[in-house]
Design goal:
By secondary structure, this protein is α+β, with helices and mostly antiparallel strands. Helix content is about 20%, strand content about 40%.
Length: about 120
């Protein structure tokens, strides 16, 4: 295994409303974040985290019009995993840097987006 599944991001209009719903319905525990509460929330869903990211366009939540979710895999070395996935034939974007956070998005054969991240 070259990376581990860490979270599923759901792109939403109202972060707090959606996070509160899943927290209440499934007894999920909130995870502290240094990101703005109206922009991002994470819940502990057992072996994975369920994250809500504010992203809303004219036609509803974004990410892609057909699939407003993104599966995120953790990797300590995002660049190395990105290169390995390209070698294996995955269409991958360039690695993006936001301070200590490194991200790289890719696309599966049906157009679903996924991400490699060093966010624990």
């Amino acid at each position: 295994m070259i990376a581990t599944m860490k979270r599923v991001i759901v792109f939403v209009a109202d972060v707090e409303k959606c996070a509160d719903f899943y927290r209440a319905m499934f007894d999920l525990s909130p995870i502290e974040s240094d990101l703005a509460a109206d922009e991002w929330a994470e819940l502990d869903a057992g072996g994975c985290r369920l994250a809500f990211h504010k992203a809303h366009g004219a036609h509803g939540p974004t990410g892609s019009p057909a699939a407003p979710h993104k599966i995120v895999f953790y990797a300590e070395d995002v660049g190395a995993v990105q290169q390995e996935l390209v070698r294996r034939g995955a269409p991958m974007d360039a690695v993006q840097t936001f301070g200590d956070l490194l991200l790289c998005d890719g696309t599966d054969p049906e157009g679903h987006r996924f991400q490699i991240s060093n966010r624990a």
